[in-house]
Structures are given as structure tokens and as C-alpha cells.
Design brief:
By secondary structure, this protein is an all-alpha fold. It has one domain. The chain has three helices and no strands. Helix 2 runs antiparallel to helix 3.
């Protein structure tokens, strides 16, 4: 298998995984941001911003992982390595998003 095709396969797998996460998070995030931002226009912007961050950051990590194809390497393992770095990027972006949004949620202290 050509190294370029191998690289594109890993990047495509990362793109599919990040797209699945964006689909899962978009609606709940938008509802939460409407509540936190006070109106829908602000929430739309921050939702779009968050979606771009969660969609792009894994691809940046995957782009940094360049496969090498030699006689003793497996194409599948090279794709898995690139996907691994993409998933690490996705986890980092989702955790950062959760941490930032979590800082803006008001804490209610229980009354004694």
C-alpha cells in the first residue's frame, strides 16, 4: 500500500470519529449554551466555535503522525497509530471544552 494512501486512510478514520463525536455533542451543548449565554445568537456562535475545535483538533494530531511503510510494518497498525493520535486529540479537545463550560455553570450550595 502506498504511504500517501495509508496516511489518507488514517486521516479519514480520524475524521469519521471526530464527526461522530460532533454529532453526539452538538444538540446537548447548544441547549446548555443557550442557558449559559442568555440568548440563542450567542449560543450559536459558541456552539459553532466548539464544533470546529472538536472537529479540527483531532485532525491536527493525526496530521502530526506520519506513517512509515517498511517490510516489517503493517498498514493496519500504521492506520491504528494515526487514529490513536487523532483520538488523543479528540479527548483533549472534549475535556478542555467540558472544563471551560463547567467553569461557567453556577454552583448551587445546599442549604443547611
Amino acid at each position: 500500500m502506498n504511504v500517501s494512501i495509508l496516511f489518507l486512510c488514517g486521516l479519514g478514520a480520524t475524521g469519521l470519529a471526530s464527526s461522530a463525536v460532533v454529532v453526539c455533542l452538538r444538540k446537548p451543548l447548544e441547549k446548555l449554551l443557550v442557558e449559559l449565554c442568555g440568548n440563542e445568537r450567542r449560543a450559536e456562535f459558541w456552539t459553532a466555535f466548539s464544533v470546529v475545535a472538536v472537529a479540527v483538533e483531532p485532525k491536527i494530531f493525526a496530521l502530526a503522525c506520519r506513517p512509515t511503510l517498511g517490510p516489517s510494518t503493517s498498514a493496519l497498525l500504521e492506520i491504528a497509530d494515526q487514529l490513536e493520535w487523532g483520538l488523543i486529540g479528540m479527548v483533549v479537545s472534549v475535556l478542555m471544552l467540558g472544563w471551560i463550560v463547567g467553569r461557567f455553570i453556577l454552583r448551587v450550595t445546599p442549604r443547611a
